[in-house]
Structures are given as C-alpha cells and as structure tokens.
Fold this protein.
Amino acid sequence: MSEVRKRPSVLAIDLLIRDILFCYFRLNAGGERMFAAVGQTPGKVSLMRSLREEGPQSVAQLARSRPVARQGVQRMADELAAAGLIEFVLNPSHRRAKLATLTARGQLLMEKAMAHELRWAAHLAHNFSDREIETTRDVIRRLKQILGEENSRHASLPRERASRTNP
C-alpha cells in the first residue's frame, strides 16, 4: 500500500514562514553578539564567507546571491576593504566591475569567526537529533529553491505587471 502524502494547509506554511523569520531574528541577534568578538557584524561575516567559500566575486554577484540591494553590499564591501579584510582586484571578464577577494588578514579573521560559530553550533546541536536537523534542512532548502524560482520569475516581469500580479 503506497503512502499518500497529505498537503499542508495554507496556514501551516504561513506559520512555518513566520517561525523561520522569527528564528532568523534570533539567529541574527546571536550572530551580533558572537561576531562582535572579532569586530564584525553578521552581514559582513556573511559577505566574507561567500568570498571564502565561492571565491572572488563582484559586488553585483554578491548582492544577487542574497538577494539584497547592491548599494548595501557595496557599502559593506567598501568598509571591509578600508579595514584591510578584502581587496578589489581586476576582473578578467568585466572592465569596470572589480572582484572582491579576501586578504590574508580577512582569511585569519574568518578562521576566528568560524571557530566562534562552530562553538555556538556545538552548544545548539545538543538539542536536536541528526534526523531532525536533516529533515529541517531539506524543507528549508526546498522552500529556498521555490522562493528563488518565484523571485526570478517576478523579476523578469515588467515592473507594472509584477505589481498588479502581487497584491
């Protein structure tokens, strides 16, 4: 006998999204405290993590991957560059859009930040089973993918049409 999957109600998905949002606020508050130890904000650490894990990127690429306003990412990148944590290098595929990359000092700071993060994660991990974590990650990854596809679809619509289809 095959198992029939019952679809969640609209309210269940709405409540999940609210829980994720409020969890994000608490994660961000914890990140503020944790990354203050290395003199940074969660946003700046996130930007440097992207460079560490994915290699040099333009500010536009960094902004699109989040998705957030390019100007905010530019401001953070400029501050990180002024602090000597990232630098801008020539981009072989674009004359004007330079690539941001971590400096040796930025690499060292990221090692310290990640050590703090792993200690925090170890503390939190005691509250969950591996199965709970994997199931939650699966759901959040699928939600992230669906939302990314929706955002891409709406971004390709002309502005006035997109606003009419989204009350």
